[in-house]
Amino acid sequence: MADxxxxxxxxxxxxxxxxxxxxxxxxxxxxxxxxxxMLEYNVPGGKLNRGLSVIDSYRLLKEGKELTQxxxxxxxxxxxxxxWLQAYFLVLDDIMDNSHTRRGQxxxxxxxxxxxxAVNDGVLLRNHIGRILKNHFRGKPYYVDLLxxxxxxxxxxxxxxxxxxxxxxxxxxxxxxxxxxxxxxIVQYKTAxxxxxxxxxxxxxxxxxxxxxxxxVKNILVDMGIYFQVQDDYLDCFGNxxxxxxIGTDIEDFKCSWLVVKALEICxxxxxxxxxxxxxxxxxxxxxxxxALYNELNLKGVFEEYxxxxxxxxxxxxxxxPSKAVQAVLKSFLAKIYKRxx
Length: 342
Hints:
The protein is mainly alpha-helical and 342 residues long. The chain is built from 14 helices and 2 strands; from the N terminus they run H-H-H-H-E-E-H-H-H-H-H-H-H-H-H-H. The protein has a two-stranded antiparallel ribbon with strand order 1-2. A hairpin with a 2-residue loop joins strand 1 and strand 2 (105-106). Helix 1 packs across helix 4, helix 3 packs antiparallel against helix 4 (69-96) and helix 8 (215-238) packs parallel to helix 14. The longest helix has 28 residues, at 69-96.
C-alpha cells in the first residue's frame, strides 16, 4: 500500500508541474509560487482514499490483468481529479462554515494574507480538473463521458451543500425541520456521489463501460455513502477523539446528524423537550444533556442494529450483481468501511 501511495504522489507532482507551466496563462514568479503553495496546502494532505480507490477499482475491473504504466498513470490522474474536486469543495466549505481547522492545520482562508483570495483559489482548483482532463484524456473515446461525469457530480454535490446550508440557517434553529429523509437527501447529494460513486464511475469509464448500464452500481454506492455518513455521525459523538483525530462538535453545531434525527423519532414528549432546549448550544452543560439523552435512548444499540441491517442489505445487493469484477469492486469498498472506528 505504501508504494502505491508514493507512486500516486509522484503523479501529483507531475500534474502540479504541468499546471504551473500551463501555456494558456503567462505566469509570473509570484503567481506561480502562489498556486504552488495553494496546491501543496490543500490537495495532497488528506487520506487520499477517494483518489487511491480509482486505481484499486480499475485494477479489480481488469480482473487480475497486469496494468500497463500508462493505465496506472491515467487511473492515478483521475484519482487526483477527485482529490482536486475535494480540495475545491473543502476550501469553499470552510469559508461558508467559518471553520478554524482542517486536517490538523488552519483552514486555507485563515492563513495570513490569504483571506478571501481563497474563494478564487477554489475556482482555480475547480478549473485545474478540466486542464488535467484535457492534457491527458482529450484523445480518448471516453473524454466527453469524463467531462459529463465530473460536471454532474459537482452539480449534485453543490446542490447537497445548498440543502445542508439552508436547513441549518443561523437564527432559524428549528429541530422540527430535521427528519431521516432530509438527512438522507443531504448525505446522498453532498457526500455519497463524489466520495463513493465518482471513484468507481471513473474506473468504469476508463474500462470502456457505459455508465447508463450501471445504475444499480450507482445506487449501491450511494447507499454505501449514506451508511458511511451515519457511521461518521455516530463516531462524532461516541468515537474516541484519539482514534478519529478530531473532537466531534455536531451537537454544538446543530448538525442534521443521524443521531438527532433518530432521537427525535423514538423519544417521548418529555425527552423531545430536552432535545429542543439543549441541541445546538455551545455550552458543555447543554451538550452533556444531549449525550445523556442519547444514552438513555440507547442510540448505541440503535446504531449497531442499523449497522448490521445496512451491511446485510448491501451484501445482498452486491451478490445480486451479474459481474464478478464489479462485485469485487463493491466488496472492497464495503470491507474498508464496515465496523470502522475512524
